[in-house]
Amino acid sequence: MARSLAEGARKLGLPVVALGRPELDIADPQSIERAFAAFMPSIVVNAAAYTAVDTAESDADRAFAVNRDGAGRIAAAASAAGVPFIHISSDYVFDGSKSMPYVEEDDPHPLGVYGQSKLEGEHAVRDAHPDAVVLRTSWVYSPYGHNFLKTMLGLAATRETVSVVDDQYGTPTAAPDLASAILDLAQSILRDGSKSGVYHLTSAGSTTWYGFAAAIFDGWKERGHRVPALRRIRTSEYPTPTRRPANSRLDCTKIHRMYGIRLPDWRDSLGECLDTVASAEIGRGP
Do 41 and 83 touch, CB atoms closer than 8 A? Predict the structure, then answer.
């Protein structure tokens, strides 16, 4: 996410400083103080998170230290500096039992440590910085780093058959699209002020993890790569330490109404990400 934000800002000619460890560790108060003193930001976007959903069940202290305490700490620093704050949260604050897309007013009910840490992070941010904007998103993927898209492409090179769950619904959201929307939001806040609160922000449309995998493999095959056979399975056939929400769909009407922001359909952005990965492979050569 941080890389997509930095690249999006560069394309727009916006001055953005992307900081991560060791320069900035949101679990370290002194690290935050040094960063604010050195860079004096005009707005802060917190995209840092502990995202190892299953590992969080046995590493709860670290998950809460980053997702709750660290988020609240950096929000407090932004508030003390008098600068706006945007915080990235997750669909995992919901249990997925609702049959329709979740709206911001729905009561959260996390299923595991990760989701609970993200929910408490939302509360910590809003307590520390009442004017903050909290963005819940879902199923974020990117041409870079570790995510579902990269995992599927890795399996495509090594497996004859891949099994993917087909009873969990959500919206794949391309990190470059999300980053572009966040940059638009940041500029709107700096220009017109913050309409504080919680907002949902994902791509349009929805599918299952199986549907997402099928679209990835179809696109990868169109670009001349081998792909494995794909098998549908149920969640019960793929047990994990943390239960996943059966429904991660988020209603994004509010952010469009309040800020005029709307992301494209997830299928439209998938091809662009696949092109980026394919170009990088060509650049590496044999």
Answer: yes
Q: How far is CA 181 from the centre of its chain?
A: 12
Adjacent-strand bridge partners of 170:
207
Tallying the residues shown for the chain, one arrives at 286
pLDDT of residue 3: 79
The parts of the chain modelled with pLDDT lower than 70 are: 281-286
The closest of 133, 125, 128 to 259, measured between CA atoms, is 133
User: What whole-number distance in Å separates Cα of residue 131 and Cα of residue 101?
Assistant: 26
Question: What proportions of the chain, in percent to the nearest 5, are helix, strand and coil?
Answer: 50, 15, 40
Q: What residues contact residue 138 under an 8 Å CB cut-off, 6+ apart?
A: 90, 91, 170, 171, 173, 202, 248, 249, 250
Active site amino acids: 114
Q: Does residue 18 contact residue 5 with C-beta atoms inside 8 Å?
A: yes
Give the predicted TM-score (pTM) of the model: 0.93
DSSP H or E segment with residue 216:
helix 209-222
Q: What does residue 44 show for φ and ψ, rounded to 5 degrees? A: -125, 135
**Of 209, 210, 227, residue with least CA distance to 218:** 227
pLDDT of residue 66: 94
Task: Locate 242 and state its tokens.
Answer: 């943390």
- Angle, to 10 degrees, between the axis of helix 113-128 and the axis of helix 71-81? 10
CA-CA distance, 66 to 70, in Å (whole number)? 5
C-alpha span between 25 and 33 (Å, rounded): 10
d(CA 163, CA 54): 19
Amino acid identity, position 69: D
Q: Which residues pair with 258 in a beta bridge?
A: none
